[in-house]
Write a structure and sequence with these properties.
The structure is a homodimer of 214-residue chains.
Chain A: H1 14-32, H2 43-50, H3 64-87, H4 96-110, H5 112-124, H6 127-150, H7 159-183, H8 187-209
Helix pairs in contact in A: 1-2, 3-4, 3-5, 3-6, 4-7, 4-8, 5-6, 5-7, 6-7, 7-8
Chain A binds a DNA duplex (30 and 30 nucleotides) through helix 1 and helix 2.
DNA sequence: GTTGTGAGTGCACAGGTGTTCACCGAACGG
DNA sequence: CCGTTCGGTGAACACCTGTGCACTCACAAC
């Protein structure tokens, strides 16, 4: 065994093969960190899974923590793809909430490993990883806040109120995503979680619409 | 060195000394798991911190996971103490929300390690620990739901709606607690988080009061 | 065609890991 | 007082850990 592709592989440039094993390392790390978390992940474990010798790991990452940061990037690529789908809603769904929750459940199911990685390492990962995740989530909040500002009926709102509401929504969505992860693909449980999420989003919106009127 | 109390300690019954080192083990584990998490915690590490030989660990727990479950119990003793304080509000605070948020910040600051343990192991811990935490949080939700049911104005609500709202509130509180943990005692940041939490709780309550009226 | 680069190898080291076993000796119950 | 219980000991085990070093040798560049 000599990595993902044997060195004598034809028609593959050297940088291509390097990128290939790099991706293999990321995949292996993502899978292995599911049990025990990133900080309990060993370099040798990853190397064995990929099919390379432990020292070869250093050709790609200088430490597990650096690997973790790369995984954060990967995971948030998935998450931003989801946000894009939320913003361009399926025309068959009239209701923004229904379509958003639907997009959420589908993405969580499809990118299960990425989402559970974020949920796990958000508080358990190495400090740098935690900071990176926290930063990315903050960005999502800001994006949501500007989206909300474009909605009708928020004219009288202060910027402060907007970010507060955005934070509330993001937290609810994060919690829902985490519940969906626990549901782990059981459709009936997923549907119950989705139902609850829809009700909660409606409650929050009703609260938001009646804001400033007290 | 021979554990927390030297064996020849006077005026201490044997079970007392056993309970003492048991608590020392729990304390050490709580502190050490702060960096790396429970699943990256080693028995020998804990033993060294306590001042005990590794094998003596087994006199108290049969595995790290069992230790983890004991820690969950400890942590939720702290959390339930907080809930008790929330329910019997300080008479100097007229507003339930203000007093609740105040109680939350104070408890999170005082029991920082317990709360961060829960936040961390909720998704990163061994499966049994995760399940135990999840179960405890569900209990809190149910308690809150019955509390809400006693409040005026919720007569027309279905049980389903009550648990959904309770879940929403608990999630917001959990998220706030986690933000307070990140604030890590910096008063100004804490106050900002508390301020946001108060606004959010008000938004949710307004949404709840206008529920069923659409 | 020669040369240099660099991903992957193999070995070695010094440490840390969980768990076993026989053992000690102080506190306990009779 | 004497026998038992049991928390703590210390050595030993087989294994896993990160990392250093000299090495190969297919590829890329000239």
């Amino acid at each position: 065994m000599a990595g993902v592709t044997t060195p004598g592989d034809p028609a593959l440039t050297r940088v291509e093969r390097k990128e290939l094993t790099r991706q293999s390392i990321l995949d292996a790390a993502l899978g292995l960190s599911a049990t025990g978390g990133l900080s309990a992940l060993s370099l040798r474990q990853v190397a064995k899974e990929v099919g390379i010798v432990p020292t070869a790991f250093y050709r790609h990452f200088s430490s597990i923590e650096e690997l973790g940061l790369a995984l954060v990037d990967d995971a948030f690529v998935s998450l931003r793809a989801m946000l894009r789908d939320v913003r361009s809603p399926d025309p068959t769904f009239r209701d923004i909430i229904d379509s958003s929750v639907r997009v959420l459940t589908e993405h969580v199911r499809a990118q299960h490993e990425h989402f559970s990685f974020i949920a796990r390492e958000r508080f358990a990962g190495p400090p740098a990883v935690r900071a990176a995740i926290r930063h990315e989530i903050e960005l999502c909040e800001r994006e949501l806040a500007t989206d909300l500002a474009r909605l009708p009926g928020t004219d009288a709102w202060s910027g402060d109120d907007l970010t507060v509401l955005a934070n509330l929504i993001v937290n609810a969505v994060v919690a829902t995503a985490e519940d969906l992860l626990v549901a782990a693909g059981r459709r009936s449980t997923e549907e119950a979680v989705a139902h609850r999420a829809r009700l909660q989003l409606r409650m929050m919106i009703i609260g938001a619409l009646n804001w400033r009127s007290d």
